[in-house]
Amino acid sequence: xxxxxxxxxxxxxxxxxxxxxxxxxxxxxxxxxxxxxxxxxxxxxxxxxxxxxxxxxxxxxxxxxxxxxxxxxxxxxxxxxxxxxxxxxxxxxxxxxxxxxxxxxxxxxxxxxxxxxxxxxxxxxxxxxxxxxxxxxxxxxxxxxxxxxxxxxxxxxxxxxxxxxxxxxxxxxxxxxxxxxxxxxxxxxxxxxxxxxxxxxxxxxxxxxxxxxxxxxxxxxxxxxxxxxxxxxxxxxxxxxxxxxxxxxxxxxxxxxxxxxxxxxxx
Length: 267
Description:
Largest sheet: 6 strands, mixed
Structural class: alpha+beta
Strand order of the largest sheet: 3-4-2-1-14-13
Number of domains: 1
Distance between the termini: 13 Å
Radius of gyration: 17 Å
CATH topology: Deoxyribonuclease I, Chain A
Oligomer: single chain
Number of strands: 14
CATH architecture: 4-Layer Sandwich
Shape: globular
Number of helices: 7
Helix content: 10-25%
């Protein structure tokens, strides 16, 4: 008898309504059991439920707001929404947590969109950077109290390792790769012994990017950063059997600047 498997995908879609055809293509071609979307940029009342329903993703937890941010978790297996944390303490829709009720029952899946943090890596000159660091601090305090198998996925907006960016030295003072952010994310990682599944399956220093700016000739220069992550508690991480980056979506017409990640677990 084979073990049940569960495949989980994460993708910053940069407007789910604008790119609904791309989401449909991804779900049709890749068929994950669960898809966590960030930056859906829509209120819950306007979320495009019909397409997901038609493809069999009949279980959904949507935490949205008009025009900005927002996260949604859609699933072919039963899920139950369990939390919406406001780690930025300003009411923005940046997190939704669900419990998986089908195969993998008991697993908690946290979908998060960490703030980008503006352009200047100085909390005094740029309050958005301070908000990002405070978000990570609140998320760290939360992680210290976890007592269940947990997977946290999403757009972390931080590339932690030197090899997670195309040019480490050039980006040390660029928000997303500064020492302050990397240290804050490291403290979060230590708070619960999280395992970075992207680097479990694609060990450093192998190329592993999930984001390319719209502003650069990304295809020719490959100026990527690893901003999207899937981290698991140790016991759950041991059950992960594969991890892939679906990079071809970045070549689709009018794509998101992020690409999806997919991890499969043998439960």
